[in-house]
Design a protein that fits this description.
Helix content of chain A: 25-40%
Strand order of the largest sheet of chain A: 2-1-3-4-6-5-8-7
Radius of gyration of chain A: 20 Å
Largest sheet of chain B: 7 strands, mixed
Shape of chain A: globular
CATH topology of the largest domain in chain B: Pyruvate-ferredoxin Oxidoreductase, domain 3
Radius of gyration of chain B: 26 Å
Oligomer: heterodimer
Distance between the termini of chain B: 22 Å
Number of strands of chain A: 8
CATH architecture of chain A: 3-Layer(aba) Sandwich
CATH architecture of the largest domain in chain B: 3-Layer(aba) Sandwich
Number of domains of chain B: 4
C-alpha cells in the first residue's frame, strides 16, 4: 500500500454520482466512514479498488471515487481475489449486503477466509433484502415479518461472526453505521490487517426493516473496548459473537489473531518473491520456451 | 481400411493398433498405448491416438488406439490392424473393429479367444511370463508391449528409454523388471512363436517433433499468448489444463489457483483481467453452465477473458469421459440478455496451440470473453506436432488509455462510444482514469443509465466490437478450405476437432470421382460470413458434420444463410471415423 504525499480528505474519495439510497439509509454511514478511513490512511484513490456484488449496498463503488467493480450478486470476493493477486500493490475492498455475502455468496465468504487473500470485506448488514423491496434475509431475526414471511420468519438467522471465527478469520469486527467515527477506526484496522479481514456493519434499512431500527440498535449496542474485551482471546470472541437478538449487541474488534496466518501473497512463491504480476513483463523468453518444450519431448 | 484412402497413396506404413482391457485387472493399459506411441514417434513416425478411459475410478474397460504412419495423419483411422487385448472382454468388445486378417495379440495365460472371423492369433502367456520369469506380475502389460514391438520390428532400446523416463526416479529395479518383461514378450514372439514382423518401423531421420495432447497444446498456447493468471476447478476432461497451469505458470511468473467452484474460477479470472493481467479458466459443459452469468458480466463490463470449454457428452453429468460437440449453443448463446462473445474452436492438436493464442488475441481485441471450444477427443489424444513457433505468432494486447496525472472532474470514459466499438482500457493503479467496471447498463463513464438511447447505443457498441474483430482479422484464416476448388456437388462444412477426419474422407471421395469441397470454420462467432457465403454459393448442396444430436451448427447456418443443409451427426460419445464421413458423403452426393 503506497501512501500519498499530499494531504487527502474524505471528499477526495467522493465521486460525482450522488448515492441513490433512501434518505436515512445506514449505507451513507458506511460510505462516509470508508472515505474517512482511506483519507486517514493516505491511500491514493487510484490505488484503491472497491468491488461489490448486487443489492442496495453494492451500489457503493459508484459513489466512491476510486477504481470499482460492480459485479454479480454474491461474487465480490472471488473477483476481488483476482484483482489483488494480479496487483498486490492495490488496496482491495470487497463489499456487499447480507443477502449477497451470507446468502448467495456464502461459499466464497468461507473459502475467502480459508484462502486468506489480503482483502477487507465489508458487509452492510441490514437484515433484509432492500433492493427487491423487503424480503427475509439470512440475517433476519426469527419471527420477523417481511413480504416473503407474512406470518413471521420461522427460520433462525445465520451468525456471520461465529462462522468467520470458526473458518479461521484472523480479523473479525462489527460496526454500526450510526457511529461512523467508530466504524472508520474499524476499517482502518481491517485495511491494515495483512490477510482477509471481516467488518460486518449493522446498517439499518429505514424503509423495509421496521424492527432493527437505529433506536433498536442504540438501546442494545455495547462497545467491546469499553467493556474490557480482549480481542486476542478467541474463546471470548466466540462468546461475544454469540450475542445477538434481544440481548446486547456488541460492536468493535471481536478477534485479532496475535499470530495471524501469512496472507496468500506471502505464501505463493511467485508473488512472495517479486513485484506485482501486472508489473512483470509478459510472454515467454526463448530460453524459457525451449526449456518447457524439452520437458514435453 | 485407411491405406485405401487417396491421401495415403504415398504411404508405405499406415497401421492402426488398439490396446484393450480392464484397468482393474491389468493396470497400465493406457501406459502400454502411450509408451508405444512415444516410441513410434521417437523413431520418426507420425502418430494420432484416440482413447476412452473407463468412467470408473478404478477398473472398467479402457481403449487406446494408435494410428501410425510415415506420412502426415489426419484421423485416428478406421479398422484396427493389430489388437492387443489383455482379457476376453477386451477382445469381445473390440472384435468388431479388428480388420479381417488382423493380428490379435492376447494374454494366453488369461484366455483363449473364440473369434467369429479370420484373424492372425498371437497368444503370449503375459501373466505367466511376468509372474514366473520376472517375478513382477504388475508388468504383464509390458510383455504385451514387447510382443507388439517385435511384430512391428521396433528398436527395443527406444522403449527402454521411455521406461527409464517414467520409472528411473522411482528405482532402477523397476526399470529393469519392466524392460525384462518387454524383452521376454518380444523374444516369445520371435523365438517361441517364430513370427516375423508384419511391418518394419525403420527409423526415419527427421527433426525431433513434439508429442502433445490437445489440452497441453491449449495450455502452451495460453502461456505463449501471455496468460499469467489461471483459475480452475477440477472437471473431466479439462483437469489436465488446471494441473498443467498449476505446475507451469509459476515458472513463468504467473499465478494459478484452484477455486471452490467454477463460478469463483471465472470470477477471479475476471478480477485479474480487470487489474490488467491476461487470464484463463478451463472447464467442461457443467462448469460452463455455471459460468454463464459471469460471461454476461465480462460482456457488459468489457473484460477480456478466455474460457476453455473441453466438451464432454450429454446434458447434466452426461458421459464425462466421452466426446461430443454439443456445447455450441451454450457457448454462442448461454446466459440472459444480448451478450455477444467470441467463440473459437481448435481443429487439431497442433492447431490448439495457435487457437489458444487466437482466443487471447480476440478477447484482448474485443475486450470481452472468448470461449475456446475443444472436446474430450482432442483433450486426451496425442499427436505429433512440429515445435510450436511462439516467436512467429502475433500477440494482441488490449488498447490501453494513456496515463494521466490530471484530476479529472468526471470518471474516465471507459465505455466511450467509438466507430469500432472499442474503447481505451484503464487498469487500477493508473492515475486519473478511475471508473467503475459494471454489469449494470451504463453510460460512457460507467455510471448506471437505463435510458432507451443509452441501452440502444451500448448494445450496438458491444455487437460492433465483434464485427470489427472480423473486419480486422488481417489475414488470420478463419475458414480453411479443402477438396474441390471450383464448383462442387457437395460442400461439407464443419468445426472443431473434425477437420482432419473430414479432410481424409473428402480426399477419398474426390479420388472416387465425387466432386466435394470442404470448409472448416475456426471462428464460430463472429461467423466468417464472406468466406462461408462464397463457399455456399459454389456448392450444389451443403452438408454440416458435427458430433451432436440436434445439428447445432447446421441450425445456425440454416438460419444465417437461408439454406437447408444435410446434417451429418453422431452421438455415440466417439469421434467420426473417416469411413463414417465417407459414407455420409456418398449418401448425400448420390
Amino acid at each position: 500500500m503506497a501512501t500519498a504525499t499530499v494531504e487527502l480528505k474524505p471528499k477526495d474519495y467522493k465521486s460525482n454520482v450522488p448515492p441513490d439510497w433512501c434518505p436515512g439509509c445506514g449505507d451513507f454511514g458506511v460510505l462516509n466512514a470508508l472515505q474517512r478511513a482511506c483519507a486517514d490512511l493516505k491511500i491514493p484513490p487510484h490505488e484503491v479498488v472497491v468491488v461489490s456484488g448486487i443489492g442496495c449496498s453494492s451500489n457503493l463503488p459508484g459513489f466512491f471515487k476510486a477504481y470499482g467493480l460492480h459485479g454479480l450478486h454474491g461474487r465480490p470476493i472471488p473477483v476481488a481475489t483476482g484483482i489483488k493477486l494480479a496487483n498486490k500493490d492495490l488496496t482491495v475492498i470487497a463489499t456487499g449486503g447480507d443477502g449477497d455475502g451470507y446468502g448467495i455468496g456464502l461459499s466464497h465468504f468461507i473459502h475467502g477466509i480459508r484462502r486468506n487473500v489480503d482483502l477487507t470485506y465489508i458487509v452492510m448488514n441490514n437484515q433484509i433484502y432492500g433492493l427487491t423491496t423487503g424480503q427475509v434475509s439470512p440475517t433476519s431475526l426469527a419471527g420477523m415479518q417481511t413480504k416473503s414471511t407474512p406470518s413471521g420468519n420461522v427460520e433462525e438467522p445465520i451468525n456471520p461472526l461465529m462462522l468467520a471465527l470458526a473458518a479461521g478469520c484472523d480479523f473479525v469486527a462489527r460496526g454500526f453505521s450510526g457511529d461512523t467515527k467508530h466504524l472508520a477506526e474499524l476499517y482502518k484496522q481491517a485495511i491494515q490487517h495483512r490477510g482477509f479481514a471481516l467488518v460486518d456493519v449493522f446498517s439499518p434499512c429505514v424503509t423495509f426493516n421496521k424492527y432493527n431500527t437505529y433506536d433498536w440498535f442504540r438501546q442494545r449496542i455495547v462497545k467491546l473496548e469499553e467493556k474490557g474485551h480482549d480481542p486476542t482471546d478467541f474463546v471470548a470472541a466466540m462468546q461475544e459473537a454469540r450475542k445477538m437478538g434481544d440481548g446486547e449487541v456488541p460492536i468493535g474488534v471481536f478477534y485479532r489473531n496475535p499470530n495471524p496466518r501469512p496472507p496468500l501473497d506471502e505464501r505463493d512463491p511467485v508473488l512472495a518473491s517479486g513485484p506485482a504480476l501486472v508489473k512483470r513483463p509478459m510472454g515467454i523468453t526463448n530460453a524459457e520456451g525451449r526449456k518447457l518444450i524439452e520437458e514435453l519431448m | 481400411m485407411a491405406t485405401e484412402m487417396a491421401e495415403a497413396a504415398t504411404r508405405v506404413v499406415d497401421l492402426v493398433v488398439g490396446v484393450a482391457g480392464d484397468t482393474g485387472v491389468t493396470p497400465g493399459i493406457m501406459t502400454t498405448g502411450e509408451m508405444l506411441t512415444l516410441a513410434v514417434s521417437r523413431v520418426g513416425y507420425d502418430i494420432y491416438t484416440f482413447q476412452t478411459n473407463p468412467a470408473e475410478i478404478k477398473g472398467g474397460q479402457a481403449w487406446y488406439q494408435l494410428r501410425l504412419s510415415d506420412q502426415q495423419l489426419l484421423s485416428q483411422g478406421n479398422d484396427v490392424n493389430v489388437l492387443i487385448a489383455f482379457d476376453e472382454e477386451g477382445f469381445e468388445k473390440n472384435e468388431k473393429v479388428l480388420a479381417d486378417g488382423g493380428v490379435l495379440i492376447y494374454d494366453a495365460s488369461a484366455y483363449e479367444p473364440h473369434p467369429s472371423r479370420e484373424f492372425r492369433l498371437v497368444g503370449v502367456p503375459m501373466t505367466k511370463i511376468a509372474r514366473e520369469q520376472v517375478r513382477f506380475p504388475l508388468a504383464k502389460n509390458m510383455v504385451g508391449l514387447g510382443a507388439a514391438a517385435a511384430l512391428v520390428d521396433l528398436d527395443l532400446q527406444v522403449i527402454r528409454r521411455m521406461i527409464e523416463q517414467k520409472y528411473a526416479a522411482k528405482s532402477m529395479e523397476i526399470v529393469e523388471k519392466n524392460f525384462a518383461c518387454v524383452e521376454l514378450g518380444a523374444n516369445y514372439v520371435r523365438s517361441e512363436l517364430g513370427l516375423s514382423p508384419i511391418v518394419r518401423l525403420k527409423p526415419i531421420p527427421r527433426p525431433e517433433r513434439l508429442v502433445l495432447s490437445g489440452n497441453e497444446a491449449i495450455s502452451l498456447g495460453a502461456l505463449a499468448a501471455g496468460c499469467r493468471f489461471f483459475a480452475g476447478y477440477p472437471i473431466t476432461p479439462a483437469s489436465t489444463i488446471l494441473e498443467f497451469m498449476m505446475r507451469e505458470l509459476p515458472r513463468f511468473g504467473g499465478v494459478a489457483l484452484q477455486m471452490e467452484d467454477e463460478i469463483a474460477a471465472l470470477a477471479s479470472c475476471i478480477g485479474a483481467s480487470v487489474a490488467g493481467k491476461k487470464a484463463m479458466t478451463a472447464t467442461s459443459g457443467p462448469g460452463l453452465s455455471l459460468m454463464v452469468e459471469l460471461l454476461g458480466l465480462a460482456v457488459m463490463a468489457e473484460v477480456p477473458v478466455v474460457v476453455a470449454d473441453i466438451q464432454r457428452a450429454g446434458p447434466s453429468t452426461g458421459m464425462p469421459t466421452k466426446t461430443e460437440q454439443s456445447d455450441l449453443n451454450l457457448a454462442l448463446y448461454g446466459g440472459h440478455g444480448d451478450a455477444p462473445r467470441v467463440v473459437v474452436a481448435p481443429s487439431s492438436v497442433g492447431d490448439a496451440f495457435y487457437t489458444a493464442i487466437r482466443a487471447f488475441n480476440l478477447a484482448e481485441y474485443t475486450q470481452g470473453p472468448c470461449i475456446l471450444l475443444s472436446d474430450a477427443n482432442l483433450a486426451n489424444r496425442k499427436a505429433t506436432v512440429d515445435r510450436p513457433d511462439s516467436q512467429g505468432v502475433k500477440i494482441v494486447n488490449r488498447l490501453l488509455a494513456p496515463e494521466s496525472d490530471e484530476r479529472l472532474p468526471k470518471p474516465f470514459p471507459r465505455y466511450q462510444i467509438t466507430m469500432s466499438g472499442i474503447s481505451p482500457y484503464a487498469v487500477p493503479g493508473m492515475k486519473g482514469t478511475y471508473f467503475v467496471a459494471t454489469g449494470l447498463e451504463h453510460d460512457e463513464y460507467g455510471a448506471p443509465n437505463y435510458t432507451p438511447e443509452v441501452h440502444t447505443a451500448m448494445s450496438h457498441k458491444r455487437f460492433r466490437k465483434l464485427e470489427s474483430a472480423y473486419a480486422n482479422r488481417n489475414g488470420d484464416e478463419w475458414v480453411s478450405l479443402y477438396g474441390a476448388r471450383g464448383e462442387a456437388d457437395l460442400g461439407v462444412i464443419s468445426w472443431g476437432s473434425n477437420e482432419g477426419v473430414i479432410r481424409e474422407a473428402v480426399a477419398q471421395a474426390n479420388a472416387e470421382g465425387y466432386k466435394v469441397a470442404f470448409a472448416h470454420v475456426h471462428v464460430l462467432n463472429p461467423l466468417p460470413e464472406k468466406e462461408l457465403k462464397a463457399f455456399i454459393s459454389r456448392v450444389r448442396r451443403v452438408m454440416v458434420a458435427e458430433i451432436n444430436f440436434a445439428g447445432q451448427f447446421a441450425h445456425l447456418l440454416a438460419g444465417r444463410f437461408k439454406i437447408d443443409p444435410i446434417p451429418l451427426t453422431k452421438v455415440s460419445g466417439t469421434p467420426f471415423t473417416p469411413q463414417e464421413v465417407l459414407d455420409g458423403i456418398r449418401d448425400a452426393a448420390a
